[in-house]
Design brief:
292 residues, alpha/beta, seven-stranded mixed sheet, 16% strand
Length: 292
């Protein structure tokens, strides 16, 4: 039976110094236990200087992975370097402290993507917050044009689809994965939902600490991807970023990127997200008034 190759791409940067070596060891060992036979684990290292390279060499010599090391300008540039070297028909991008907690995950995801001839796959995942608690992130692909629909770690991609859209736009340092998700939909690529939770990932602290940069990148992403569909004025962009409010003419055009039978649900999901974002802002303002 034909088994298409899968490439799992991981980025590293001084993980010994950052006390991520144990997390990386868990990732490597659980990936080795996957039931799928054709997995290439490709590590792109940012020229680490703290003992990370010795760790990677040990794993390479044991046959767990292959790695390349040179300075980069961020994880998304590193992921693109990995994509250029990847041999797999399917590709996933996970951080050094993420892991597949289900050992049949890759086998079952590939089977589904082959069956559905899918360009990408998305699935539920567990997110570990920096404060130590975990919650389940359930994908909302119909909300992609408003907010990030699911974490990059909870997705699989057909390599040719990624190459067609030229991978990640690495000028975005925090939200290049969100930009990629939007571009895949706008370019007509076919996604499929895998209903099982198979991934655990840690929520990045950078996005939580750099809210101004997150909002600026989100505004740029909306402008870049929607400017040929609707006049993206500063006011439109501001309301989209802060309130998830999309002008009706643009919303109608975006709805055509989903199947006709999903159109009604698309508008329902849009209204729900818009309401949730507005209620959250009202609550935040009320707390700020109480704390004055």
């Amino acid at each position: 039976m034909y088994e298409p190759d899968v490439t799992v791409i991981t980025t590293t940067s001084n993980i010994v110094e950052h006390e991520q070596a144990d997390d990386f060891t868990l990732l490597v060992n659980l990936l080795d236990r996957q039931t799928y036979p054709q997995i290439e684990h490709l590590v792109i290292d940012n020229g680490s200087t703290d003992g990370t390279i010795d760790l990677l060499k040990d794993y390479k010599n044991l046959g767990y992975l292959n790695f390349f090391t040179e300075p980069d300008n961020g994880k998304f540039e590193a992921y693109n370097k990995g994509l250029m070297r990847a041999k797999g028909k399917y590709v996933s991008f996970i951080s050094c402290d993420d892991f597949y907690h289900d050992i049949t995950a890759i086998q079952d995801i590939v089977d589904l993507m082959e069956q559905e001839d899918a360009d990408f796959c998305f699935f539920p995942s567990y997110c570990v917050h920096p404060e130590g608690y975990a919650f389940q992130f359930v994908p909302a692909i119909l909300n992609t044009f408003q907010v990030t629909p699911c974490p990059r770690q909870a997705m699989f991609f057909k390599r040719t689809a990624l190459e067609s859209v030229r991978g990640f736009d690495d000028k975005f340092k925090l939200l290049a994965d969100y930009d990629l998700q939007i571009r895949l939909l706008l370019n007509g690529f076919h996604g499929v939902y895998f209903e099982r939770n198979v991934m655990t990932y840690k929520l990045g602290e950078q996005g939580m600490k750099r809210i101004t940069q997150v909002e600026a990148e989100c505004s740029h992403i909306f402008y870049k991807n929607y400017k040929n569909l609707y006049p993206m004025t500063n006011d439109v962009l501001d309301r989209m970023v802060k309130y998830s409010e999309i002008p009706k003419p643009l919303l109608e055009k975006l709805s055509t990127n989903f199947a006709p039978e999903d159109k009604e649900l698309f508008f329902q999901m849009y209204e729900q997200m818009y309401t949730v974002r507005n209620e959250a802002i009202k609550e935040q303002r009320a707390r700020e008034r109480r704390n004055r």
